[in-house]
Amino acid sequence: MTIRTITPAATASGGHVPAAPLVRPTQAHDHSQCISQALSSAEQLCAASGARLTPLRRRVLELVWASHKPLGAYDLLDQLAREGHKPAPPTIYRALDFLLEQRLIHRLASLNAYLGCSHPGDAHAGYFLICQGCGTVEEIADTRGLQQAIAQVTEAAGFLMEQGALELGGRCLPCREGRA
Ligand SMILES: [Zn+2]
Ligand SMILES: [Zn+2]
Ligand SMILES: [Zn+2]
């Protein structure tokens, strides 16, 4: 059996490197900072690409970012209805599609729910740690090792990967320690 070692050059190719350390969603932090940062990045990215961040799209993004727990389309509809809006489901889905296209949010297939992207604006597959205790989801920030491992497996199988999200279920540290 041979074990292929991962060369530094291969590891460095591709993959997103976060510009600044991101907060862990499961750590105590000022979440209003997450929300304001997400909204200002969205405004900048949309302004740069000429996409229209309408008030509804912006509000949907803000609601998705209400916490680090993914929200379903019907949760969003309920919330908007409580605020006195009554958008039809297709309107919400169009807003969500827009946010997905702009890479501002991710859809978690296993939960059929949406999560704000922690490093929006660059094309990346989403790799997620989903806590089945408290529902918090962390998007893995440094994905270089994972991308390398997945590339090895898919290339060995002669498989052309087109969609590469990874949703890992388990328990976050606070839940494991009985703090959540
Ligand atoms: Zn936060
Ligand atoms: Zn992301
Ligand atoms: Zn948890």
From TrEMBL:
Its cofactor is Zn(2+). Zn(2+) binds at residues 131, 134, 172, 175. GO terms for biological process: negative regulation of DNA-templated transcription; regulation of secondary metabolite biosynthetic process. GO terms for molecular function: DNA-binding transcription factor activity; transcription cis-regulatory region binding; zinc ion binding. Pfam families: FUR. SUPFAM superfamilies: Winged helix' DNA-binding domain. One of its GO terms (cellular component) is cytosol. Transmembrane segments: none annotated. InterPro entries: FUR (IPR002481), Fur_C (IPR043135), WH-like_DNA-bd_sf (IPR036388), WH_DNA-bd_sf (IPR036390). It comes from the Bacteria. Keywords: DNA-binding, Metal-binding, Repressor, Transcription, Transcription regulation, Zinc. Binds 1 zinc ion per subunit. The keyword Endoplasmic reticulum does not apply. Belongs to the Fur family. This is Fur family transcriptional regulator.
